[in-house]
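User: I'm designing a mutation panel for Nitrate transport protein, NrtC like protein and want to avoid disrupting the core. Could you give me a predicted structure to guide residue selection? Please restate the sequence first so the numbering is unambiguous.

Assistant: Good idea. Sequence first, for numbering, then the predicted structure tokens:
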Amino acid sequence: MKRRQFIKYTSLGVASCGITACTQGNLDVFRPQGTLANPDKAFGPLEKTNLTLGFMATTDAAPLIIAQEKGFFERYGLIVTLKRQPSWEAIENDLLEWRLDAAQTPFTLPMEVQLGKKQAPLIALMNLNLNGSAITITQKAWKKGVRPSIDYNNFSDFERGFRQYIRNHNQSVRWGIDSPVSMDAYLLRYWLSAMGIDPDREIELLEFPAAQLNYKLQAGMLEGYIASAPWTQTALSEEAGFISYISRDIWQGHPNKILAAMDGWVRKNPATARALMAALLEACQYCDRQGRAFSDRHRSQTEIPELLAQPQYLNLDSSLIKSTLGGTYLYSNEESTKTVVEIPDFIIFNYQDTPYLQTPDHANYPWRSHAIWLLTQMIRWNKNDLKTYPKDADKLLDKIYPISLYEEVAKTLNIPIPNDTLKTEKATAFIDGRSFDPSEPVAYLNQFSIRASRPQIVSFV
């Protein structure tokens, strides 16, 4: 292994862009051009002004919290109550029963609900962030020679030792997830299978709320877990484990959390839904302008971490939140290797100048190609009994991820959007060097030797 003190693209974040340059230059492209004269009237009379929004205690709930704390909801005529939920399942149930008007959910949830047994019309309105999760491994693995990804020359160097470590266990290896239908769960499967480890045959996935994952790791119930920040850093503070991979390095620029609502609610409250999206778009912009810092002037920035850390929100020490929002990241507490790594794009709420996110692309745009990728992975693992790529996939995805709604709001705010809804992911975007062409989903699926329907050629129904 070769020790490295930085990871890919770090220099781009510091030298080429710099956080001051991002906030004063490129990020301004996605700010509203001028101030709306009457933002509370921008979408017409609001059908409903008092809203209840659900969220989970994760860093990527920041847009909702900041919109509340900094007055973005009020700016658009909305009076919002934020309701912290104990699990993604609780959020799903409350959305389906209309006890919540909208909520922060995993990118995957609307598709899982619409194509699953419930077949409820839950839809995605906009992305809230890209990246933002990480894989934590027990400290026992460290003693066996496993190290954080930054200690290796490349993924191939890491995978050989890790695969051997996993297969030296005499029983199935248990891994923690916060939901079987979360984006994190799909990324964990992708990461494991890229190393030749079958997540259905060699790994037992156990579901726990993110706040409990570290306790399960400490108790020896789990070999590791994947979760959104800041829960990945708690294992370090308790010396229970270390960070192996961040999700950005599994798929650069992957969608993570979204704003979701019932289709019927949006149709009943069209102006309210658009005002809500506009308020959160401004909050996402604010998070990226104010939350990160690489210049000395901004290194003491604590406003957003302290707001998120409050008891009614994440209820955590703000230092755990600051490490990921500020663009710095700690992989291990081991004294021999302890180092803070600069990762300006660990989590992106609106825009960062990176090799995979360039204007007019931005984090909040709901790419159709992202939905197609998710559908291929659901078929790959036979989720909801999906075994073939459906002929009416375009129609299904139009219903679940209605891009036109977002484009309407973006136009009102003078936010430029891509000319196409499909984006080809380059080979450099994925950890296994496999590119993704959304116009060829069946060919993409057939590349994978590890899949639930391995003997079957995936084709259109």
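For picking mutation sites, this is relevant: The radius of gyration is 21 Å. The first helix runs from residue 10 to 17.
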